[in-house]
Amino acid sequence: MESLLSLLCCHYSLLILFQSKYQVYGNSSQLPKHPGFKVLASASHYWPLEDVDGIHEFRDTNGDIVEGMVNKGIYVTEKEGVTFLFFGNYKNSCISNPEVCGPEGVTFSFFWKTQDQQAKFLPASGGQVISSGFKICSNEGEGSVEFYTRGNAMMKWKASFSPPGPYWTHILFTWKSREGLKVYVNGTLNTTDPDGKVYYEYGDSNANLLTETQGDQAKRYVNGAFDEFIIWERALTPKEIEQYFTAAIGMQVLLSSTLPWSLMTTTTKPVLSTNAYQPIITSLTKKRGNYRSPSTMLGYLENVSFSLPNKSLSDNTALSLTEVFLNTIEDFLLLPNWVDVPETARVFGSLIQTIDTVMGHLACNLEEHSLPLTVEGVSSVADYSLVKTHPQTLNLSHYRFPSRGQSYVSIPGEAFCERGWITIVGLLYHNMHYFFHNINPMDTKIAEAAAYKGYMISATSYVISIKVEPLPKLSHNLSGSPLITIQLTHQLTPRQYSQALNKSNSVHLYCAFLDYSNGTGVWSNEGCVRESGDLNYSVCLCNHLTNFAILMQVVPLKLTREHQVALSSITYIGCALSIFCLTITLVTFAILSSVSTIRNQRYHIHANLSFAVLVAQILLLTSFQFSPGTMPCKILAILLHFFFLSAFAWMLVEGFHLYSMVIKVFGSEESKHLYYYGIGWGCPLVICAVSATASLGSYGESGNCWLSLDNGAIWAFVAPALFVILVNFGILIAVTRIISRISADNYKVHGDANAFK
N or C: which end of the chain has fewer CB within 10 A? Predict the structure, then answer.
């Protein structure tokens, strides 16, 4: 059960509930030869929303729309502020009960646009929508498809996408029991929900549609238009979806010549107007700041890139659209908590591809009657340049973008084609590299980096993009010519700089690019080589164009086999001698335990110190037998932390005891005994408990069974140890002064130089 009123919030107020309508009885031989029309002919249900085969729209005595001769549709008029299309309730239909679809699945398709320029302040229409089947809605700038099945397990699939603006957009979704829900926007897969979830709250499977009206003048609604509703009782393949989409928008035969709903504007054909780019600029401007979800905003930007009209535009229009589009990209970059979002690199790879698509489209569609044309500027996101010209007008030994600065791409003039016109798109991103950090080398196509599995890669330069149409003629091998030259200044963080200067690390710098051959951006270095450079810059040679950056991987140097054997031998021999001597010491203290009380207390302190060091040495040798990252290694790391801290704590007790004997006597022997044990064992226990609770992942992970050196956890040991050293050093100075003064006084009285010494 879901209140429709809750869906009809700020920006869009559209909801359509579909369950079945009349069938298509088509003859594919009578259709045009485009394969997309054969796909249409195989549909189960088709609503062109115009006259079809002599069947006209008409209303029955109740005022409801009836199209064809099968089912009744319910239409809520314009004053209600929302449009309903209802297709009956077929209990045994694949459409109303997807569980009977079988493995073939089901597909639903329609064209959709909103016409915000005609928006009015209209009353709300509220009520309840109760159905099985599926639902498409738009709410607060987010479109979504919800798909329901009812049976032994009531399931719901939901996929979100960016709703259209004031231009026609094709929405198609497929569902199969094994593949889940897939949503295609303009013929391209946009989003999916493969698994779904158990759902218990969506209405009654036997109910129809209930509506009631409630007025609310404060709500703002947007007019919408729909066209070409089609249902296939099978899931179309991606190829069929592309074929139908290209037929629909290319041939323009499937698009309606009339729009029957009074909710729509007077537009008679779902084609773009002459000033086709202005609605996109308006939409981008109005939507700034409206998105809080990265996936929703990225979907909207991708929708914009898919929906750009294939029409020429002036340089002023291109500049305006570029500025507005990059301002929207800035909003995307400013969304909070990007650093902590999983899959950040993948998301920003898709974002860069979307920017490339938009900028490339604008450059290719610049008006040709006033060539050469250059549109360039600087925004907070990037320096950009769009050039459309003839090769003869370049007359350069090389083309460089940007023309100034230490980071640039240079294309030899001989690489440009001699005929036709050339478009060049250049982008130098200011902050995009910050979002490509901690990249798993196994997720790249850089073989050298994958050899150092487990050592993450980060972008360490600006990301620069260059695209030329038609493609320049470049050498196939990196030893020939012409080649692209890329020089990029490194933008190292303080941590990266510190790691690079550490002589125990090996620094690997890769000239890399985003490879979209598999559909998503993956970093690769194929066709690129780092020719020269140092820690401050790199010069690369490449035989292709795309988005480039310098990636850095820091790998700790490994000792040679000889050095490892030598260090292991020293460690085992030294620890073994220490363990032997500490054991003798403890046995000696046990034998001498019958001495006087004062001396016995000193022996207690020495014995506890020796015991802590002895156990720590044994645990240290044992830890060499376990691999980092395992649970035994973590446990040993925590125990080592505790016993080494205890050793330092008992050293502090040694200092306090000396202070109490020489300078200031405090407390009874029994009370001092309790203090000493509290300091020697209690304080390390508290520190270890707090450290392990707060940062358990810092134990036994980085190469050995000890505290991590990377995230500051080592200070849980270093800080207490430094404190003990400083306090004991102060006690040593104070005790030395007292003894020196007493000895000097004795020398004056007795004149015995040996006593002074």
Answer: C
Q: 244-258, 331-345, 412-426, 717-731: which range is least confident on average?
A: 244-258
Give me the residues paired with residue 512 across strands. Answer: 549
Give me 182's structure tokens. Answer: 């897939």
Q: How far is the C-alpha of 664 from the C-alpha of 603, rounded, in Å?
A: 20
Query: How are beta strands 188-193 and 547-556 bridged, if at all?
Result: unpaired
What's the Cα-to-Cα distance from 712 to each of 437, 492, 699, rounded to whole Å? 20, 20, 12
> Which sign, positive or negative, has the C-alpha torsion 283, 288, 289, 294?
positive
Q: What is the 3-state secondary structure (H, E, C) of 359-414?
A: HHHHHHCECCCCCCEEEEEECCCEEEEEEEECHHHHCCCEEEECCCCCCEEEEEHH
* Cβ-based neighbour number of residue 733 at 10 Å: 9
Q: Residue 146: which of 130, 162, 135, 155 has the closest Cα?
A: 135
- 267 backbone dihedrals φ, ψ, rounded to 5°: -60, 130
The Cα 467–Cα 67 span in angstroms is 50
In 557-677, DSSP assigns E strands to: none
Q: Is residue 756 classed as helix, strand or coil in its secondary structure?
A: helix
Question: Does pLDDT of 710 surpass 60?
Answer: yes
Q: How far is CA 44 from CA 68, 109, 251, in A?
A: 14, 12, 22
Contact 322, 384 (CB under 8 A): yes
| 688 closest CA partner among 650, 653, 722, 640 | 640
Residues 638, 607 contacting (CB under 8 angstroms): no
Average pLDDT over residues 628-638: 90
Question: What are the structure tokens assigned to 20, written together?
Answer: 């079945």
CA separation, residue 46 to residues 34, 285, 533, 664 (Å) = 18, 36, 63, 99
pLDDT of residue 271: 34
CA–CA dist 243, 682 (Å, integer): 74
What does R_g of the chain's alpha carbons equal in angstroms? 37
DSSP code at position 678? I
Residue type at position 112: W
* Separation between Cα atoms, residue 605 and residue 608, nearest integer Å: 5
- Domains annotated on the chain, with CATH: 35-201+221-249 (2.60.120), 289-556 (2.60.220.50), 561-744 (1.20.1070.10)
Q: What are the two backbone dihedrals, phi and then psi, of residue 15, each rounded to the nearest 5 degrees? A: -145, 135
CA distance 248 to 85: 22
DSSP 258: -
- Say what the pTM is: 0.50
The amino acid occupying position 519 is: G
What tens digit of pLDDT does each residue of 202-229 get? 443 333 322 222 333 333 333 456 677 7
Most confident range, picked from 256-270, 510-524, 589-603: 510-524
Whole-angstrom distance, CA of residue 445 vs CA of residue 439:
12
The per-residue pLDDT of the chain, averaged, comes to 75
Partners of 213 in the beta sheet?
A: 125
Residue 754 has pLDDT above 70, yes or no: no
What DSSP character marks residue 680?
I
How far apart, in whole angstroms, are the C-alpha atoms of residue 757 and residue 745? 12
CA 621/CA 440 separation, integer angstroms: 33
**H/E element holding 126?**
strand 125-129
56 or 143: which carries more pLDDT confidence? 143
Residue 300 token pair: 């909207």
For 752, counting Cβ atoms within 10 Å of its Cβ (0-12 exposed, 13-18 middle, 19+ buried), the class is: exposed
